Amino acid sequence: MINAPRGTRDILPRDVVEWQMIERKIREICDRFGFEEIRTPIFEHTELFQRGIGENTDVVEKEMYTFEDRGGRSLTLRPENTASTLRAYLQNKLFAEKSLNKLFYIGSMFRYDRPQAGRMREFHQFGVESIGEMNPAVDAEVITLAWDFLTELGLTDLELRLNSVGCPKCRPQYKEVIQKYFRDKLPELCHDCQSRFDKNPMRLLDCKIDSDKFTDVPIITYYLCDECRNHFETLQKLLEAGGIKFKIDPKLVRGLDYYTKTAFEIRYSPLGAQSAVAGGGRYDGLVEELGGDSTPAVGFATGIERIILALEQQDLLLEKLPSIDCFIIALGDLAQIPAFKFLTDLRRDGKSVAMDFAGRSMKAQMKQASKSGAKFAVILGEDEIRSNMVTFKNLETSDQELIPVEKILERI
Q1: Cα separations (Å) of 250 from 164, 182, 237, 246?
Q2: Would you state the torsion angle of the CA atoms of residues 129, 130, 132, 135, taken in this order, to the nearest 10 degrees?
Q3: What angle do CA 77, 116, 275 make, to 5 degrees?
Q4: pLDDT level of residue 138 (50, 70, 90 thresholds)
């Protein structure tokens, strides 16, 4: 017997209703905020992620599913969708259509990581990208969309963490400060942090093993240039105007190299150590890194599996509601053909109709009709065929009566 690969899962019919509910909310809120859906390929040229995400990130170094196709080209299953969205933005010249492109996506991503609750090797993300505007109001709009999406699903106990990670003008100075602070402490650091010390020292702040040991780390906001400081202060005022509370977190740097200025996470504390349910920030250099003109951009992503875990914590998942209008019960071989005609005609008229195809007894079919959640049953036997009538039964009240065939649709 062949099972699904480790780190993947089947989403069964009984669970799909939860996903559909979340996806409906995604499309509804993105429509309100003026974001349009984009769909990109599941695999891309590996270079896109090496340049876009950063070769020194854990994603590129350890987690990507990379393979050669039959033409010898290196391809990678997308580990995230920001780089793919910006590649599509450039390739299809969306910048020529409007100055600000507001895009959203829903889809599968792939990372080779240790599977755990809410984190699979194939996982599903909803994300938005707002491309073309430097104004901190765009950051505030993206953060507000993320916050409103989660709160409108019913989640409480959410916390917004906010930081600025600077820009190419002010970050080099802070990197020197960080390296100076950690140089004497290198032997105490975990293996990953020791390797990050030269390549990406800001990631030392994001360490899940050692970060609590160093409470007196210099804070990046002290080293921001005037542009970054003004941007960050204006963003805070905008969020306050929108009624969104936040906490400044100087250690929040996110795990990807492309972030500039704004970085944020929304956390749901009942999930424990892995509490982040959404995160993102600004990445003003990424479009240029991928071959385009210098273009500001900001976005976020959230894992749908993580959202479902959070909704389960608060008992907010919907039970699947019956959607069958009518169940047709055919008794005997003679009833099969006219019953199938009723089935087809009612479906073509827009009704949700089911029928037993096993030729079981009246009792067994009635049991199946009740189990299906149907509101009504239409019973067709030899007597009904001869009189051109059907027995129409209300399954909620158990009332039933003989009615002419042509009255079925009207009664339903």
Answers
A1: 8, 16, 18, 13
A2: -140
A3: 100
A4: very high
Question: Can you give the residue ranges of every domain in the chain?
Answer: 13-170+224-313, 326-411
Tokens of 352: 């949700």
**Nearest C-alpha neighbor of 281 from the set 257, 269, 264, 306:** 264
CATH topology of domain 326-411: Rossmann fold (3.40.50)
- Check if the beta carbon of residue 78 is closer than 8 Å to that of residue 60: no
Residue whose pair of structure tokens reads 């067994």 in the numeric block = 364
Closest CA to 208 of 158, 168, 255: 255
The tokens describing 136, both together, are 């901190």
Q: What backbone torsions phi and psi does residue 393 show, to the nearest 5 degrees?
A: -120, 130
Say which residues have a Cβ less than 8 Å from residue 224's Cβ, sequence separation at least 6: 164, 166, 170, 232
d(CA 302, CA 278): 4
Contact predicate 159/172, CB 8 Å: no
Q: Is 347 helix (H, G, I), strand (E, B) or coil?
A: helix
Strands 101-110 and 36-37: parallel
User: Can you tell me the distance from the alpha carbon of 400 to that of 405, in angstroms, rounded to the nearest whole number?
Assistant: 14
Specify the amino acid at residue 153: L
Structure tokens at 85: 């969205």
Q: How would DSSP label each residue in 108-161?
A: EEE-----BTTB-SEEEEEEEEEES---HHHHHHHHHHHHHHHHHTT--SEEEE
Which CATH superfamily groups domain 13-170+224-313?
A: Bira Bifunctional Protein; Domain 2 (3.30.930.10)
Three-state secondary structure call for residue 107: strand
- Quote the CA–CA distance of 254 and 265 in Å, as a whole number: 8
- Enumerate helices (H) and strands (E) in the chain, giving the number of each: 14, 16
Helix ranges restricted to H, 326-393? 336-348, 362-372, 382-387
Segment 81-131, tens digit of pLDDT:
999 999 999 999 999 999 999 999 999 999 998 877 667 999 999 999 999
Cα 196 versus chain centre, distance: 29
Confidence of residue 408 (pLDDT cuts 50, 70, 90): confident
Residues in the chain: 412
